[in-house]
Specification:
By secondary structure, the chain is α+β, with helices and mostly antiparallel strands. The chain has 18 helices and 54 strands.
Length: 906
């Protein structure tokens, strides 16, 4: 009896244990798991969606899907889904299975070299369980897949390889959820988290935040700012990562809502400050956010802008960086005079090898005090260096040189590094600082021409989409920054960058902003595709005006501005030697009967008591200057002698103070210079160079030194001072004939100023203004008939292309000597090649065949714009309207002038 009782008791215990185990397993399987608690702490981003089909459909409607679907990662994912669909049971495809589910996708950095994702998908119904079980069984039977398993900490992980694509993924199930990833290591990290029974979610601080119930919200996006630099480090060069990590230290985590509109992506929400002692937030200790007042001084060629809106700008200096203790008190006093705004702008470059120019900005509430302290500091530096303080007048501005290394960093902190010296200028209530004098001069010209953010229609439309006040803002233009991106992306990712160039450039405007509200940062990320409201059909041409003249037109349409409203106009000269102004509306303006043909180009200058635009040009032996009625200005024309044969006329304004110098050259290589009163300048009557010029002379100002650069057809290049004297080291011989000019990159002094010339036979020579050759490189020359020329952009900027012509074949090379495209034409005669660069991706090449009288327009990839040509045997003129994203072409043929509008394809 006792034995039987013991036996029953043991049996009861076993049955009870089995029942309890079965009940526990059943209860566990029924228990709903918070998927956020499964996400490993290493996640950089976590995306939560609940309507997969609606998201894809909206992407298709906005055109984003067309762009995203071209990405290699998207294509690979679509291929794998297609293979899985092919073995899926019945009619329930994966799209139906995934629809209306709250799915998590976490993004991780694996092994400091790869980006991988984990998908967390709930299985909600018996039907879904049956579908999933049948699908996994069919995968094991399918010839498309190889399947294996491995056990890890009591979890069975299934590994699947696509035998056709070679891609792999792994998965396991947990509490009615399936967790998948291409990375088994990430799944094992998830298993370890489950087994540690860590209930806290990575987004625990945002447990009550859920944007998915709001209209037009397609996802919650969790951001781990502490891990974000590790993700960016996979793509960016190590040299810029310290600054990236410091910027990321503003916040520790954030939860944002994803919204999609027509060609816009919005991420808005809140981020929690990073309160570590050395974080950017702890340094800034921001209060109320500030507006972007500096927009009226930012050039449209800005590639990247970092803007701080703070009451106490000097806090950015912490910890203090003192380069020279002797000047520390003066720098401290100066730093205390700035408030509200500090910013640093990186400007567009035109070459992969060129470092971007930088400009620092700071708001001055009391400009007089700031300038007083600047002058005092400048005198201290000059005494210590045993030099004279240097200030240069440029128009109405005084540019001061402060030879203190890293002055912006000492004033505004580590994010303003990279200034070996500082040229400073006051513009209204802002101090502008650049490393090079040429950068400031060019920037002041942009401000004067209103070529700035505050006056740009496209940029203003973008800024309206962003926060109007913020503590930290990052603005990025992917088109302007294209060469910067190529320069700082790691080599192994450069190919991916180039493959995705069209998508990156299409959504070119980006802003990321942080604005402190109640102890949290309201965060806004905007990615925008500009120029959406264009009414002109892409790749079509519209003839706006046709203007027949009485006589044949003998010149190109010279581009000029209206003297009153600065609207774009043109001037032509007919076979009767009559100069005719054509207004923007296509009407005849003033006329001027010259009786002889003009030489070179038509210049415009501000002159006279009202600084009105006037026209300056040359004929064979005269210099003319006329007003907007076609009437000669006082003292004009200048009669230079009947025997003279003028080739070019250039106008110099050394101080930008409208005290112009007029320089002409003749067919013998003689140079003549005059002022606006007709007085000859000593040293230039004539300045003999004994050989014909290859291109117009150029004026440069380098560190306070005026230089006139003169290239000759025999391959010699002269550098002259304003008195006509040759600079030491010049002339320099390029050892080969020249047929084009020289492009200059102005540096801090003569040594650092680099000049580039291309000889007739394809030798690219770089030299400096000390006459030292820095580099020679030979472009490919298939035969002795191949001839080269350097073609600068039409506006006279620093960008250029190199053109090779060989028996009807034209090849275009960029500044880095990479071939852009190659075209073959009917005739072997030399072609007229023009290069128009309007900034960013707005580049056009015009090739004109003088024999067949045809002009071809190409984009940067060599695609014929509009698939058509134009009747013309003269160079064309092209204007660009940034607001409407339209181009206006002026071209002449026989006695007819046409104005044609068009757009470029996306």
């Amino acid at each position: 009896m006792p034995k039987r009782i013991v036996f029953y008791f043991i049996g009861f215990v076993v049955l009870a244990s089995l029942a309890f185990y079965g009940f526990s397993r059943w209860k566990d399987s029924r228990e709903k798991v918070d998927l956020w608690t499964l996400v490993p702490d290493s996640a950089v981003l976590v995306v939560e969606t609940n309507d997969h089909l609606a998201l894809v459909e909206h992407l298709r409607e906005t055109g984003l899907w067309e762009s995203l679907s071209t990405l290699p990662a998207t294509q690979l994912l679509q291929e794998n889904i297609a293979y899985l669909d092919s073995v899926a049971p019945g009619s329930q495809r994966l799209e139906r299975f995934l629809d209306k589910k709250e799915i998590l996708t976490s993004v991780h950095v694996v092994g400091n070299k790869d980006v991988e994702v984990v998908y967390y998908i709930p299985v909600n119904t018996v039907g879904e369980h049956r579908f999933l079980r049948t699908l996994t069984e069919d995968i094991g039977k399918s010839p498309f897949f190889d399947e294996g398993t491995h056990e890890y900490q009591d979890f069975l992980i299934t590994d699947v390889r696509n035998t056709y694509t070679g891609s792999t993924f792994s998965y396991f199930t947990y509490h009615n959820n399936i967790i998948l990833s291409p990375s088994p290591a990430l799944l094992e990290e998830t298993v370890r988290r489950i087994n540690r029974r860590t209930p806290a979610s990575v987004a625990a601080e945002f447990a009550s935040t859920n944007y998915l119930g709001q209209p037009d919200v397609y996802a919650n996006v969790f951001v781990n700012y502490r891990a974000l630099p590790d993700l960016l480090a996979l793509f960016l060069e190590a040299e810029i990562m310290p600054e990236v990590r410091y910027l990321a230290s503003l916040c520790r985590s954030g939860m944002l809502e994803l919204k999609l509109q027509q060609d816009k992506i919005f991420l808005n929400g809140f981020s929690l400050p990073e309160k570590l002692k050395t974080s950017l937030h702890s340094v800034m200790q921001p209060e109320e956010p500030r507006e972007l007042g500096v927009k009226n001084y930012l050039p449209n060629r800005t590639a990247l802008l970092l803007h701080f809106g703070l009451k106490e700008i000097e806090r950015l200096r912490l910890p203090l960086q003192v380069a020279d203790v002797a000047f520390a008190p003066a720098v401290d006093s100066l730093a205390q005079t700035f408030s509200s705004e500090a910013a640093i702008a990186y400007l567009e470059t035109n070459s992969l090898t060129a470092s971007p120019e930088k400009v620092a900005y700071a708001h001055m509430p009391a400009p007089a005090l700031t300038l007083q302290l600047l002058s005092s500091l400048n005198r201290q530096v000059a005494v210590a260096r045993k030099q004279q303080p240097y200030t240069e007048r440029y128009g109405s501005y005084d540019i001061m040189l402060l030879q203190i290394p890293e002055l912006p960093a000492q004033l505004f902190g580590r994010l303003f590094q990279g200034f070996e010296q500082s040229y400073v200028v006051q513009v209204d209530n802002y101090l502008l600082i650049a490393e090079e004098m040429a950068t400031l001069r060019s920037l002041l010209d942009d401000i004067s021409d209103e070529d700035v953010w505050g006056k740009s229609g496209g940029q203003k439309a973008f800024l309206e989409e962003t926060l109007q006040e913020a503590n930290l803002s990052v603005y990025f233009n992917t088109v302007n920054a294209w060469y910067i991106l190529n320069r700082y992306v790691v080599e192994e990712n450069r190919e991916d960058l180039l493959q995705n160039a069209s998508l990156i450039k299409r959504f070119s405007q980006l802003s990321l902003q942080f604005s402190l509200v109640d102890g949290q940062y309201y965060t806004s990320l905007v990615i925008r595709r500009p120029h959406l409201t264009n009414n002109v059909t892409q790749e079509t041409f519209a003839v706006e005006q046709t203007l027949p003249l009485s006589n044949r037109i003998d010149t190109r349409p010279f581009p000029v501005q209206n003297t009153v409203d600065r609207s774009p106009e043109v001037i032509v000269q007919d076979s009767a030697d009559v100069l005719i102004n054509i207004t923007a509306s296509g009407q005849r303006g003033w006329v001027d009967t010259l009786g002889t043909s003009i030489r070179g180009r038509i210049k415009q200058i501000e002159y006279g008591p009202n600084n009105k635009l006037s026209y300056v040009f040359a004929t064979a032996n005269r210099i003319h200057a006329i007003n907007n009625q076609g009437q000669e200005l006082e003292n004009f024309p200048f009669n230079l002698g009947d025997s003279l044969d003028i080739q070019h006329l250039v106008v110099f304004d050394y101080e930008n103070n409208k005290e112009y110098r007029l320089l002409v050259d003749d067919s013998k290589g003689n140079l003549y210079m005059y002022n606006m009163s007709g007085a000859a300048i000593p040293g230039w009557q004539p300045r003999k160079l004994d050989y014909k010029l290859a291109a117009e002379p150029q004026h440069l100002r380098v560190g306070g030194t005026d230089v006139i650069l003169v290239p000759l057809e025999n391959g010699y290049v002269y550098a002259l001072n304003p008195e006509g004297e040759t600079l030491p080291g010049f002339p320099i011989s390029l050892k080969s004939p020249l047929t084009s000019g020289v492009v200059v990159n102005v540096g801090a002094d003569l040594k650092q100023t680099e000049l580039t010339a291309v000889t007739r036979y394809g030798n690219v020579v770089t030299f400096n203004l000390q006459g030292r050759v820095l580099n020679r490189e030979q472009l490919p020359r298939p035969s002795k008939r191949a001839l080269f020329e350097l073609v600068p952009e039409s506006s006279g900027g620093r960008s250029f292309v190199i053109v090779r012509q060989e028996q009807g074949q034209v090849t275009i090379f960029d500044q880095d000597l990479n071939q852009l495209f190659e075209k073959r034409y009917v005739t072997s005669a030399p072609k007229i090649v023009q290069y128009f660069n309007f900034g960013g991706a707005n580049e056009i090449f015009a090739v004109t065949e003088t024999g067949p009288q045809k002009t071809y327009l190409y984009d940067t990839e060599g695609n014929l714009i509009g698939n058509r040509t134009f009747e013309s045997n003269k160079p064309v003129s092209i204007y660009y309207n940034e607001t409407t994203n339209t181009y206006t072409l002026y071209k002449v043929f026989r006695n007819e002038l046409k104005k044609i509008s068009f757009t470029l394809p996306d």
